[in-house]
Write a structure and sequence with these properties.
- The protein is built from 10 helices and 17 strands.
- The protein is α+β, with helices and mostly antiparallel strands.
- The strands form 5 sheets. It has a 5-stranded antiparallel beta sheet with strand order 2-7-8-1-6.
- Helix 5 packs antiparallel against helix 6.
- The two termini are about 25 Å apart.
- The C terminus is likely disordered.
């Protein structure tokens, strides 16, 4: 299994200047070939990766573009491969049409393959072509040679190196607890467990909104393109990065705790892309990062021999009584507590939903799927989907 390990990098001033030149050349090649392929597409012609590679060879012979020869040729070729992947995804309807890369707007990156770097496992030193030895903060020892190395510069000015490493047996040894849990994710509470435990939403962006707004107002007052403008823009980027790091840290702690405590985890298949279309909840949902939490749980469960079962998104987990199974006709989002009209049980909305997710997920596991959730209108809502990570494979039950 391939894993990507990321480490902080500390280039020297000369190396930082060379990396800036490399990033600029990669951006120039990507934008130039994107324009060439777009023009060929409009003429009804086809320009493939081989054609763009030949064009790149011609660009290097141009006296006005002689600076392309000052950097390693591998990141330039990888830019063409990334462009080819973008077009393949577009024609397969997996993504939108590629756009031009803008300087300073996104993270700059340069990818090196094995022919352009050397990693010494004994000394843990990374040497890049035409750059030399790059100082890294190695947080865990790399025993095998990486297949690719990507150097990234964030808008905050930080440099990172990500290595793609082949891991033979990623399974983490853990003690079986025999416990199962259903999880209901939300905004007011980040997660509610079927055991009754609630995980509060840290709201990292909400607590730093005033500080971020003040920094952005100061940026707006600066003269665009001046040194003070660039310095203030780095401050704003650092603040955004600090919020993202705090959010990622809390989600890592949550996912690690769940995988260590439970042998089986049951989740709900949420349509997050549709939920963020609600302008009243978009910022809160994005701040909670429910999708990232689910991906972390699934990845760590796969490495720890823990099964993850996802039930269908149309199952009315909040409106169904977890005691007698009575289904309400409607339950507004503002109602957080409700009493079952049949059995009289008082329910917490989120706890009741988590208990239903656990019960339905266990039913899917026992019967092997094939159970359908039915909407109040009588239309079938779709089958329950079971994703089993206990052996590192995805088993979809139908």
């Amino acid at each position: 299994m391939k894993r990507r390990w990321t480490f902080r990098a500390y280039p020297t001033p000369a190396q930082a200047e060379h990396l800036a030149q490399t990033f600029g050349c990669c951006r120039l090649v990507y934008n130039g070939m994107l324009a060439a392929r777009t023009a060929a597409f409009q003429r009804g012609e086809r320009l493939t990766f081989v054609g763009t590679s030949a064009k790149l060879t011609g660009l290097k012979k141009d006296p006005d573009l002689a600076f392309l020869n000052a950097v390693s040729c591998v990141p330039l070729q990888q830019s063409l491969r990334h462009l080819q992947t973008a077009f393949a995804n577009f024609f397969a309807k997996r993504s939108a049409y590629s756009t031009f890369k803008k300087k300073g707007r996104v993270r700059d990156r340069a990818e090196y393959t094995r022919s352009a770097f050397r990693f010494d496992g004994a000394t843990q030193r990374l040497t890049l072509a035409k750059l030399g030895v790059l100082e890294l903060n190695i947080s865990r020892r790399v025993e095998v040679d990486p297949s690719t190395v990507t150097v990234t510069r964030h808008p905050s000015g930080r440099y990172y190196v990500s290595m793609v490493i082949e891991v033979a047996d990623p399974t983490i040894k853990r003690v079986k607890t025999g416990q199962s849990v259903g999880i209901d994710f939300g905004v007011s509470r980040l997660a509610t467990l079927s055991t009754g435990e609630t995980i509060p939403n840290p709201k990292h962006l909400f607590h730093r909104t005033a500080l971020l707004a003040r920094a952005q107002r100061r940026l707006f007052r600066k003269q665009r393109g001046s040194n003070r403008y660039r310095a203030q823009r780095r401050r704003v980027a650092r603040l955004h990065e600090k919020i993202a790091d705090a959010r990622k840290d809390s989600l890592h702690k949550l996912s690690t705790s769940l995988v260590r405590r439970f042998d089986s985890i049951y989740l709900e298949d949420l349509h997050l892309r549709g939920l963020v279309q609600n302008h009243r909840l978009a910022r809160s949902l994005s701040d909670a990062s429910i999708g990232t939490a689910i991906r972390m749980i699934e990845a760590k469960a796969e490495a720890s021999d823990v099964s993850v079962v996802t039930i269908d998104r149309w199952f009315p987990s909040s409106k169904t009584c977890s005691v007698c199974g009575h289904l309400l006709d409607a339950l507004p989002l503002s109602v957080r507590q409700w009493a079952c009209p049949r059995c009289g049980t008082d329910h917490d909305r989120d706890v009741n939903a988590a208990m239903n997710i656990l019960a339905v997920g266990q039913t899917v596991t026992v019967r092997g799927g094939g159970i359908r959730a039915v909407r109040p209108s009588g239309r079938k809502a779709g089958r329950l989907r079971s994703v089993n990570h206990s052996r590192g494979k995805h088993a979809i039950s139908s």
